[in-house]
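Weekly modeling sync, notes
Attendees: S.R. (lead), two postdocs, one rotation student

Agenda item 3: backlog of single-chain predictions. S.R. asked that every request posted to the team notebook include the full sequence so nobody has to chase files. The rotation student volunteered to paste the first one in as an example of the format we agreed on. Action items at the bottom.

Example entry:
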Amino acid sequence: MGITKIDGVLLDLGVSSPQLEEISRGFSFRFAGPLDMRMDTSGGQTAAEWLAKVTEDQLEWVIKEYGEERFARQIARAIIVARTRQPIVTTLQLAEIIAAVVRTRQRQRENMRHPATRTFQAIRIYLNQELEELSLVLPQCVELLNPGGRLVVISFHSLEDRMVKQFMRTGASTDELPRGVPLREKELQRFSKQTLRVIGKAIRPGELEVAENVRARSAVMRVAERMTLNG
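Predicted structure, as returned to the notebook:
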């Protein structure tokens, strides 16, 4: 479109509600759908294909690393055992395997999230390389911003939010100048790398917003401003 610089970027991370509600996409365990989970359905392996071949150790790592699930080892073992009996090809199959493990280890409460939530989330993040994509797009956004332009990121997962928080903090910091040491102009520029200014604190939804849209409960919004090009 011939646009080289912009004044603002809004990143709304994660899966959208229409994607979650489309049974054929396999993101949700509320309905019996194919175990797909791909953002781009034109290529790459589905969750069912990956689960049919993944080793127990790798599966445990993915569930623990991307889902922050404390029962990762038990869930991974149960999935590996279950697939020897029959292929795991639907969302409800996988959800039931996970629920059988978790419910024997923690008491279910009425307001507790579904026991398969963290594992589904982990597999989705891993298959779609969501954290890798985020690490690539953040610096690209900053490069496109005009001085004074804003970068706004809404994340729904602690790993995403941690990455955004660290990226903004790093962009807002500068190397400490050595005391009593004369520096040439090129050397001075090395100690003036500040590209961002963090705007306010992280913003989270209030009770009213969560009541109107329960999927907003885990949202965290962070804002940073592009500094002048010379720091």
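Discussion: group reviewed the output briefly. Residues 107-111 have pLDDT under 50 and may be disordered.
Action items: rotation student to repeat for the remaining queue; S.R. to check formatting next week.
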